[in-house]
Amino acid sequence: MTTAHDYSQGIDPEHALKYAIQRWHGDRSEIVEGILTHVTPSWAHERAAKLVRRQIEARVDELGCVEGSGNLDLPGSANWYVPDIAVVPDELADGGGALVPDQTLLVVEITSESNADTDRVVKRKRYAEYGAPLYLLVDRMDKTATLFSEPGRLGYGKVDGPHPFGTPVRLPEPFGIVLDTSGL
After folding, report:
1. Is residue 19 helix, strand or coil?
2. Residue 172: closest CA among 134, 116, 124, 142
3. Second-level CATH architecture of 41-179
4. CA distance linking residue 13 with residue 161, whole number of Å
5. 35 to each of 101, 118, 129, 155, how far by Cα in Å?
6. Could you tell me if 21 and 29 are in contact, meaning their C-beta atoms sit under 8 angstroms apart?
7. Contact 133, 104 (CB under 8 A)
8. pTM above threshold 0.90
9. Which residues, at least 6 apart from 49, have a Cβ–Cβ distance to it below 8 Å?
């Protein structure tokens, strides 16, 4: 005789959701405010990411970091992000697991029609709340770039932009470089 098992005790819903996302549709899936999403960037989106990567990669190497789109966990929330670009120290990249936003030096999100408001509002708020020091929003719909810094529980304290594409955007230290946004 089979008996029903009571799973109501001892199962952490956040842990279960994040366990599931790591096994659902490979490594390009995320959870935004509890909604599971498979990330499928367009070629135009990938081109914008490539243009940003090319401009930061020499400085990223000098800093002993790596840039990529690895998993970012937001503990205590129903959020698990796959940023378009995140810059993290090499030694943290060797761990193989998800990192948290305050372990990054820079997070870059590039909007698509399907997720523009998520990147503009939800992720901006959450990255600040979880301590990502720099958040660059490349808004392909509005054709602007905005750099957010000075994270806090209520959002970013400093906003540089939005700047129309074509306007140089300075990434502060530890980067100390200027991004050309004309090709984004």
Report:
1. helix
2. 134
3. Alpha-Beta Complex (3.90)
4. 38
5. 19, 11, 19, 22
6. yes
7. yes
8. no
9. 41, 69, 84, 85, 108, 110
Q: Which amino acid is at 88?
A: V
- Structure token digits, residue 24: 């659902």
Classify residue 118 as exposed, middle or buried by CB count within 10 Å of its CB (0-12, 13-18, 19+).
Answer: buried
**Amino acid letter at 27?**
D
State pLDDT tens for residues 108-134.
Answer: 999 998 889 999 999 999 999 999 999
Please state the length of the chain.
184
Tokens standing for residue 19: 């366990």
Domain boundaries, the chain: 41-179
User: How far is residue 33's CA from residue 42's CA, in Å, rounded to a whole number?
Assistant: 23
Residue with tokens 């870059």: 108
* The pLDDT of residue 7 is above 60: no
* Residue 20 pLDDT class (50, 70, 90 cuts): low
Taking the C-alpha atoms of residue 180 and residue 184, their distance in angstroms, rounded to an integer, is: 9
Report angle CA 161, 85, 15 to the nearest 5 degrees.
115
Q: Look up residue 69 and give its two tokens.
A: 């789109």
Joined together, the tokens standing for residue 7 give 């799973």
The arithmetic mean of pLDDT across residues 154-167, rounded, is 97
